[in-house]
Design brief:
Shape: elongated
Oligomer: single chain
Distance between the termini: 63 Å
Mean pLDDT: 86
Number of domains: 3
Strand order of the largest sheet: 9-6-5-12-13
Radius of gyration: 41 Å
Low-confidence stretches: none
Largest sheet: 5 strands, mixed
Strand content: 15-25%
Helix content: 25-40%
CATH topology of the largest domain: Nucleotidyltransferase, domain 5
CATH architecture of the largest domain: 2-Layer Sandwich
CATH class of the largest domain: Alpha Beta
Structural class: alpha+beta
């Protein structure tokens, strides 16, 4: 049924008032007005009766609609000062933020979508005390060279520095995202315990690529990556192998002796084999401050590191300075990204 506007209701009342006889609408006028405004005659009668009651009570005639309707409310405006005054812990979810701003969650979501509110993911940073800051400053200054004739300060080329570090690689991730077709069955992945997913630690070493005088690459910087594993014979028969078969097992406890064996028997031979013969044999291996690492004064290391004219030294990076090792920044991350795209044995059933 048509809803009359207030202007139409006023015109109807005026028409009936001009066509009444002794306070009653003349015969046929109600049907005429109803047809003109495309409403039921009961609507016209009800409007006339309402106006007559107001006249009888000596009140000003007001035939406007009493329906409240849906009033169009303007969209809420973000109060940035109020937003800044809210504690950060109360701004960790849209629901919590909406509660403290006194608006709906959909309003906050709209502000985020329109970039009036910026979404930020915050990661913990290593805490640096004054001693650590000084160590970082000294470390940075040691990599600078001042040329007197040009009055310029430039970075050393660092061509003789090799970055070495360890990294755990898990067999699979606890949670993985897949994109499936509509109606496709969800993959079923299973392990015995999500808290103890099989993993193995690798030792990686990389350096800076070196180029000859003609611009040709003579060393790509890739020294190698080696797993901390051990070969042991199987203790009993199983469906997969007979007792005595050599099996590869990961070393779960990485101590100084294991690390020293890895460096002396794997890393140093690889450096000597891949290092260009026409480049200085003085090399610095930069490692982090992990407890299993050892220093230059280890006799077994010095014996191998200084043989055949080599001068290989170990250097610690400054404390709480994870950004000084290129392996953590990109190399290991790239390898892990590729590893996670390879199907592992018994990862699905």
């Amino acid at each position: 049924m048509k809803n009359l506007t207030n202007l139409e209701r006023s015109k109807i009342n005026e028409t009936l008032l001009n066509n009444n006889i002794n306070g009653k609408p003349r015969h046929g006028i109600i049907n005429e007005v109803a047809a003109r405004f495309s409403v039921d005659r009961k609507t016209i009668t009800r409007l006339w009766m309402e106006a007559q009651k107001q006249r009888a009570s000596s009140l000003p005639v007001n035939v406007s609609s009493k329906k409240k309707g849906n009033k169009k409310v303007g969209r809420a405006i973000l109060d940035e000062e109020k937003l800044k005054s809210i504690d950060l812990l109360d701004r960790s979810t849209q629901h919590s933020l909406a509660t403290h701003l006194g608006v709906s969650q959909s309003t906050v979501s709209r502000w985020v979508m329109s970039k009036q509110i910026r979404s930020h993911t915050n990661a913990l940073k290593p805490g640096l005390n004054d001693k650590s800051k000084l160590a970082r400053l000294i470390f940075s200054l040691q990599h600078l060279v001042y040329y007197e004739h040009t009055k310029r300060i430039v970075f050393k080329d660092q061509s003789n520095i090799i970055h070495m570090d360890e990294k755990w690689f898990s067999k699979t991730k606890p949670t993985t995202r897949f994109y499936l077709a509509k109606g496709e069955t969800n993959p079923h992945r299973c392990v015995q315990s999500k808290s103890f997913i099989e993993k193995v630690m690798f030792m990686g070493a990389v350096g800076r690529p070196l180029y000859g005088s003609n611009g040709k690459l003579i060393f790509d910087g890739k020294i190698g990556i080696w797993p901390f594993v051990i070969e042991i014979p199987a203790q009993r028969n199983s469906k997969n192998r007979v007792a005595g078969t050599m099996e590869t097992k990961c070393i779960e406890s990485i101590n100084k002796q294991v690390t020293k064996d890895m460096i002396i028997n794997r890393v140093l031979p690889a450096i000597k084999a891949k290092w260009p013969s026409n480049v200085s044999k003085r090399i610095i291996i930069q490692q982090d401050n992990a407890r299993p690492h050892f220093r230059n004064d280890d006799l077994d290391f010095k014996r191998v590191a200084t043989s055949d004219g080599w001068e290989i030294e170990l250097a610690y990076q400054t404390p709480n300075s994870l950004d000084l090792n290129v392996l953590d920044l990109g190399f290991f991350r790239s390898i892990q990204s590729l590893q996670q795209k390879k199907r592992q044995s018994n990862w699905m059933s």
